[in-house]
Write a structure and sequence with these properties.
By secondary structure, the chain is an alpha/beta fold. Among the domains are: 48-92 and 244-328, no CATH class; 332-414, Immunoglobulin-like, CATH 2.60.40; 420-551, Immunoglobulin-like (Sandwich). Helix content is 24%, strand content 25%. It has a six-stranded antiparallel sheet. The longest helix is centred in the middle third of the chain and has 19 residues, at 195-213. It starts with a helix and ends with a strand. Bound molecules: zinc ion. Zinc ion (ZN) binds next to loops.
Length: 553
């Protein structure tokens, strides 16, 4: 019976601690089934908050300091994979099944040796990449994903990469495909007449290879526009990318209206998020007049509102952004909310707030669920006094500048809960300051601090005093015992029983005694020439024992 009660208590405690939970796999699977989008992404990807992008060797320390769940655009290198795995970070090399090079071997294929892999237009010409002009991608061609030999070549390459220890692929250039006339012109065969279905078949084959080597591996896509991704692709993807998320290298302002565009995307993508698909938001920071830190906090807050995993496109070590990779806010406490035009979302460890208004300050009153002593505002630098907000003295409102995002961690009080009733302190001090002088408080003996050795003799800030902290205000009997303080027997060094001398000056413990001290009177909260006084200690207070000084004869 007692065991039964104990179990109930344990279950209750566990339930309370786990108030915030990530959506579970069964709920995600049911949502994925109803949307007909294949499987949910694995837990680690659903629960990811930030990721690394094209990690540089010089940034290795920042990668180790971060809590990013994975890196994309990483080298195909066994040692690199192993070192990332040692840090708990998964690795996704770059891949494209859209285009290839005629100038070099890429993913095991040089198109000059395999012109039959290239898509054919209605006039029978090889189809150039769509970036031929916009990004000056000369001698690059669009691949026909329906070509069976191309699919086999990509599967062979994918298998080699997975054997080296990758966790899957970052597959760039996903889009709705144009018809290929390769069959009509006798250039190649097609696995399907529907080019989107043919592309989906290739994604399916590659994802199966990933899962053969890594049970929790993933296929991450980049269409730059997940809302427009051909539906069938979702069946074989764990994530899709929103590239140039709010900040981009082709605009000097945060592009598109936040409410009308980015928030709209957030709302449209929530069913896919609920189905366990991840959205990789990639912002390119550093091109607007707001500054990298303002842009980073705005983009990060926006991504956390939506539940997207985020990267800012600058090295993880950048001091304007590093903190955002070093924290995790944990599972959400419900969906995003709005309060007077300001958007917020609460998480297990903190919350984000975003004010989309370009002119007005936003104010945000903390909901009931936020029951903490302090908020740690991450926007001021660590150590800045503004970073710690005392909710008792500052009130339960935070102010968000116009067109800005902010991130807060809940922070605790550090006061001991078992000493909440600590009462006033009486400090008894000597003048001149004398070490090792004996007093008595309520019949118990106390000595003044007299310094100690480090590499030299340190008198320290409490030399010649002692303090007693009472549990509550009240009257106390304080008396001086050593009305004529003894000479000190100062030790010769740290922790030794040897003495510098038997007769050292209690006011200068490393010097021989050549003066005598004699108690004269009490000063401070009471004045008296009697050795014993009664003191009513209402608040913390100081009492000074004054001494006459005479040269030794
Ligand atoms: Zn074709």
């Amino acid at each position: 019976m007692r065991f039964g009660i104990f179990l109930c208590v344990v279950i209750l405690l566990v339930t309370q601690l786990r108030a915030a939970e990530w959506p579970d796999a069964a709920t995600r699977a049911a949502a994925a089934k109803s949307l007909d989008v294949g499987e949910s992404a694995p837990d680690w990807l659903v629960q990811s908050e930030t990721y690394g992008f094209s990690p540089q060797p010089a940034d290795w320390q920042a990668l180790a300091e971060s809590k990013v769940a994975f890196v994309t655009h990483c080298p195909v290198n066994r040692e690199f994979f192993e070192r990332c795995h040692a840090l708990g970070i998964r690795c996704f090399p770059y891949a494209s099944f859209y285009q290839g090079f005629a100038t070099t071997t890429f993913q095991g294929v040089n198109l000059k040796d395999h012109p039959e892999f290239i898509e054919v237009d209605e006039k029978g010409n090889l189809r150039r990449t769509s970036f031929w002009e916009s990004e000056d991608a000369k001698n690059m061609y669009t691949i026909c994903p329906a070509c069976p030999e191309y699919q086999d070549a990509m599967c062979k390459w994918a298998e080699e990469v997975m054997k080296l220890g990758a966790d899957g692929f970052f597959v760039d250039n996903l889009s709705s495909r144009s018809p290929c006339f390769g069959v009509k012109f006798g250039k190649h065969k097609h696995v399907s007449d529907d080019p989107n279905h043919a592309f989906a078949m290739l994604l399916d084959r590659v994802r199966k290879i990933v899962r053969k080597y890594k049970a929790d591996g993933a296929l991450l896509g980049n269409s730059a526009n997940p809302v427009g991704l051909p539906h069938e692709y979702w069946k074989y993807l764990d994530a899709d990318m929103l590239e140039s998320y709010i900040c981009t290298w082709v605009s000097k302002d945060r592009w598109y209206d936040w409410s009308g565009h980015w928030h709209e995307q957030d709302v449209k993508l929530q069913p896919l998020i609920a189905a366990g698909k991840q959205i990789q938001a990639l912002s390119y920071l550093g091109h607007t007049g707001y500054g990298v830190r303002e842009d980073a906090f705005f983009c990060y807050a926006s991504a956390r509102l939506a539940g997207f995993v985020w990267n800012g496109g600058v090295p993880l070590s950048n001091p304007d952004t590093a903190i955002l990779y070093q924290i995790r806010l944990g599972p959400p406490l419900g969906a995003e909310q709005q309060q007077g035009g300001v958007y917020y979302r609460l998480f297990d460890r903190g919350f984000v707030v975003l004010n989309p208004d370009k002119q007005k300050l936003g104010t945000f009153e903390l909901p009931e669920a936020v029951k903490f002593s302090y908020l740690n505002d991450l926007f001021p630098r660590a150590g800045d006094p503004k970073a710690m907000i005392d909710l008792k003295t500052a009130g339960r409102k935070v102010t968000i500048p116009p067109f800005a995002g902010r991130v807060y961690l809940y922070a605790p009080s550090t006061q001991s809960e078992l000493q909440t009733a600590a009462g006033p302190t009486v400090t008894v001090t000597t003048a001149p300051a004398l070490g090792e002088v004996r007093f008595r408080v309520d019949g118990f003996d106390y000595w003044t601090y007299s310094g100690h050795w480090t590499t030299q003799y340190e008198q320290g800030p409490n030399f010649g005093k002692f303090m007693v902290t009472f549990d509550r205000p009240g009257k106390h009997k304080i008396e001086i015992v050593d009305t004529v303080p003894a000479d000190m027997k100062t030790p010769a060094g740290y922790g030794t029983s040897q003495r510098l001398g038997e007769f050292m000056d209690p006011s200068q413990p490393t010097k021989p005694a050549n003066r005598k001290f004699k108690f004269r009177e009490w000063k401070g909260v009471v004045s008296s020439t009697q050795p014993s006084v009664e003191v009513d200690v209402k608040d913390s207070t100081t009492l000074t024992a004054e001494f006459d000084v005479q040269d030794k004869k």
